[in-house]
Amino acid sequence: MARKLLECSLSDKLCVVREQQYEIIIIPTILVGTFLILLAVILWLFIRGQRAQQQSPGLQGIAPVPPSRGLSWEAAGHGGSVFVPLKETSVESLLRTTTHALAKLQVPREQLSEVLEQIHSGSCGAIYRTKMYTGDPAKPKSVVLKALKEPAGLHEVQDFLGRIQFYQHLGKHENLVQLQGCCTEELPLYMLLEDVAQGDLLSFLWTCRRDVMTMDGLLYDLTEKQVYHIGRQVLRALEFLQDKHLFHGDVAARNILIQSDLTAKLCGLGLAYEVHVRGAIPATHIVPLKWLAPERLLLRPAGIKGDVWSFGILLYEMVTLGAPPYPEVPPTGILQHLQRRKIMKRPTSCTHTMYGLMKSCWRWSEESRPSLKELHSRLEIAARTANDKAVLQVPELVVPELYAAVAGISMDSLSYNYSVL
Ligand SMILES: Nc1ncnc2c1ncn2[C@@H]1O[C@H](COP(=O)(O)OP(=O)(O)OP(=O)(O)O)[C@@H](O)[C@H]1O
Q: Which of 120, 166, 259 should be mutated for ligand 1, with most atoms under 8 A from CB?
C-alpha cells in the first residue's frame, strides 16, 4: 500500500492523505497473467504431444502404421471386391443388404455347438473354438469362431462384415487360414474359420524347447530343414497376397498357425484388410516395433519389402525357438539401433547360410532386399543341403511375461498354449 500527502503545509491541522492500494490492482493482474501463461504452456505441450504421436512410433514398442505403397486403385478398395454399403444408416438395414452378398457363406446358428472355448481375445472380439454340425451329426467339424464384440455400433458392424468379405475376396490358398462361413443375418455376428488346432507357431517353438511328450500327435522337434519348410510356405502365402496387390504387414511367428504335419498358415490378416479398404494403413493399428522394417518405423509408405524384412525376423524366431528379437535393445530404441546400421548377430543355432538369408532381408534399403521370388528360390536351394537330423535346442524355458516385455508386445497378443502342456 502507498500513501501520498496531498499539498499539506506544516501549519495545516488537517491534512488529506490518499492511500493507493496497488495490491488490489497488481495482485489480480499477476494472477490472471500467470494463469494465461500457464494455459498457453499447457496448450503448447498438448499440441506438441499430439504432433509427436502422429510423427513418431508409438509407446512401448508398438507402432502406428504408415501409409502403404504399391497398391493399385482397385485393390485399395475403390472398386475392389469388398462392398460393404456405407450409406446404410442402421445396423438392421446394413445386415439386410449385406446378407445377400454373403448368402453362400451363411451357416444356420443351430448348426453351431453352444459350447464355446475361448482361445484368444482378438482385435474385433473374442475368438473361440467350437463345433459345427454339417451333414453327419456324429462327426461335427471343429471350427474357430470370431465373434464381433457387443455392443457393436454401425461402424464396427461395417468393419466386421468387410473383414468377412475380404476373406471371400482373397479366396483359397493352402497357406492362408480359410473362411468356412459366417452368421450375419442378425447380431451377434460370427465369422467361422477352419480350425488349425495346433495353434500358433510361437507357442509351438516354445514347446520345442521342452523335452515333453504331448498328447496332440505333434512332434515338438524342429530341424534346420523344417525351418526352411515352414519359411517357404509363409513365402507362398505372401506371394499370393502380393499377386493381389496386398501385403501382410505383421509377419511374425505369433501370426502363423501350424498343423501337425507342419503345414503353416498365415493368419492375422487384419492389417492387410485395412490397407485393402482404406488404401493406407490406419494410425490406430498397432504393430510391435521389433518386427518392422526401417521404412515402417520412419512412417514412410510401406509395401511387400517390409514383409521381407519381417520374414528375416521370423527366420530368427524359428532358429532360436522363439527368442524375442534384439534382446539387448529396448523396444522403443529399435529405430535408433537400426539407424546405426546394427542388425542382430548370428544366433549360435543358426548356420551361415541361414544367417546370410536373414541379412539379405535386413538390408536398410528396400530395393536391395530380395524379392519374395528370389528369397523363395534361395530358401529352396538352402533346404537341399540343410540338416534334417540335428534337432534345434535351446535349454532356457520362456517366461511369457518377460518375453512380452523384451519383445515389446502386449500379453494379450500371446496365445500362450505353452502353459497348458
Ligand atoms: N483358424 C484358427 N485356428 C486356430 N487358432 C486360431 C485361428 N485363428 C486364430 N487363432 C488363434 O487366435 C490368435 C489370433 O488370431 P488372429 O491374429 O487371426 O486374430 P485377430 O486379433 O482377429 O487378428 P486380425 O485382426 O489381424 O485378423 C492366433 O494367434 C491363434 O492363436
A: 120
- Does residue 242 have its Cβ closer than 6 Å to ligand 1? no
Give the cell for residue 68.
502403404
pTM across the whole model: 0.80
Pocket lining: 122 vs ligand 1, CB cutoff 6 Å: yes
Q: Using CA positions, which residue lies closest to atom 5 of ligand 1? A: 199
Percent with pLDDT over 90 in the chain: 63
pLDDT single digits (tens) 152-163: 999 999 999 999
Same domain, 254 and 351: yes
The residue among 178, 179, 180, 177 whose CA lies nearest residue 201 is 177
Judgement on whether residues 223 and 179 belong to the same structural domain of the protein = no
Looking at 194, 215, 232, the residue that finishes a domain is 194
Give per-residue pLDDT as tens, 167-202. Answer: 999 999 999 999 999 999 999 999 999 999 889 999
Q: Tell me, yes or no, whether 419 lies in a domain.
A: no
Length of the chain: 421
Is ipTM strictly over 0.85? yes
Pocket flag, ligand 1, residue 413 (CB < 6 Å): no
- Same domain for 301 and 377: yes
| Cα separation, 80 vs 288, whole angstroms | 29
Which residue among 250, 307, 388, 412 is the active-site one? 250
Pick from 194, 217, 242: which residue ends a domain? 194
401 CA to centre of own chain: 18
- Which range, of 77-86, 114-123, 172-181, averages the lowest pLDDT? 77-86
Q: Look-up: residue for cell 462392398?
A: 83
Q: Could you tell me the distance, in angstroms and rounded to a whole number, from the CA of residue 145 to the centre of ligand 1?
A: 10
250 catalytic residue (yes or no): yes
Please name which of 222, 236, 173 lies closest in space to residue 375, comparing C-alpha atoms.
236
Closest-CA residue to 276 (of 193, 162, 191): 162
CATH number of the domain to which 219 belongs: 1.10.510.10
* Structural domain that includes position 263: 199-414
pLDDT digits (tens, 9 = 90+) for 126-136: 999 999 998 77
193 lines ligand 1 (CB under 6 A): yes
